[in-house]
């Protein structure tokens, strides 16, 4: 299938370990994380090599906790020319936090990532797309901490979030202070009256490549970028198994072996860049380097 090469799509990775999956009681306690086997460094290294081979830039939304445990990871990603952004520190859902605890968590993640890379951290993606109606205050916290764009909104209802909004990049203006924030929402394709996510996580692993291409065609025909989001664990066929309900297990583990091939096929077919570039924030990126 021919691609529409006028549109530059957004390539992003949420850098967390397999045990940061939400609502898996067996691994929910952060006190246990240090003792669990880790796959984040090995799989992230593969991701960086694969997208480097395709001469593509991407955004890595890194969990502050992961950056602290693996102090060379963010630096390696930045040195390869990619954008380092934050995925929070503890991977807590925003709608379960207060503005104060969200601020503490976000600031801690920004501090560790900017210290390690020497760059200003401009982008944020909430764990599990957990900015929901009623948590618009999160945007004011982001403004106060110097965040320049958000990639947390998921314009369809889902298990852990969902926020009704425009389907493509837009300006989020519903913060209590009224300050506007560039927003890059997750891609949800229209399928009759329903919406279907096709370009990230379990959805990308579950769907056949032709269905994913259909989503790209729909978005790019409207001049709209697709946002890809994947995790290191999405590429790990040997991802540790933990007890969880059967439906959840299916969504977590199916398709792990084919994800690499799908990503490589998409990299060959479509144009991609980092989120900051897709949002047109490039100019300030250079100026944003911490002296
Ligand atoms: Zn996450």
Describe the structure.
By secondary structure, the chain is α/β, with parallel strands linked by helices. The protein has one domain: Glycoside hydrolase/deacetylase (TIM Barrel). 36% of the residues lie in helices and 14% in strands. It has 12 helices and 11 strands. The strands form 4 sheets. Strands 1, 2, 3, 10 and 11 form a 5-stranded parallel β-sheet that branches. A two-stranded parallel sheet has the order 4-5. A two-stranded antiparallel ribbon has the order 6-7. A hairpin with an 8-residue loop joins strand 6 and strand 7. Helix 5 packs parallel to helix 6. The longest helix is centred in the middle third of the chain and has 19 residues. The C terminus is likely disordered. Bound molecules: zinc ion.
Proportion of beta-strand residues: 5-15%
Q: Order of SSEs, N→C?
A: EHHEHHEHEHEEEEEHHEHHEHH
Q: Ranges with pLDDT <50 over ≥5 residues?
A: 284-291
Oligomer: single chain
Number of domains: 1
Rough outline: globular
Describe the sheet with the most strands. 5 strands, parallel
What's the tally of helices?
Answer: 12
CATH architecture: Alpha-Beta Barrel
Task: Classify the secondary structure makeup into a structural class.
Answer: alpha/beta
**Helix content range of the residues, please?**
25-40%
How would you sum up this structure in a few lines?
The chain is of the alpha/beta class.
Give me the secondary-structure topology.
Layout: E1 8-15, H1 30-33, H2 40-53, E2 59-62, H3 64-69, H4 73-79, E3 83-86, H5 99-117, E4 123-124, H6 137-144, E5 149-150, E6 170-172, E7 181-183, E8 188-191, E9 194-197, H7 201-206, H8 209-221, E10 227-230, H9 246-253, H10 259-269, E11 271-273, H11 275-278, H12 282-287
Parallel strand pairs: 1-2, 1-10, 1-11, 2-3, 4-5
Antiparallel strand pairs: 6-7, 8-9
Helix pairs in contact: 5-6
Bound molecules: zinc ion.
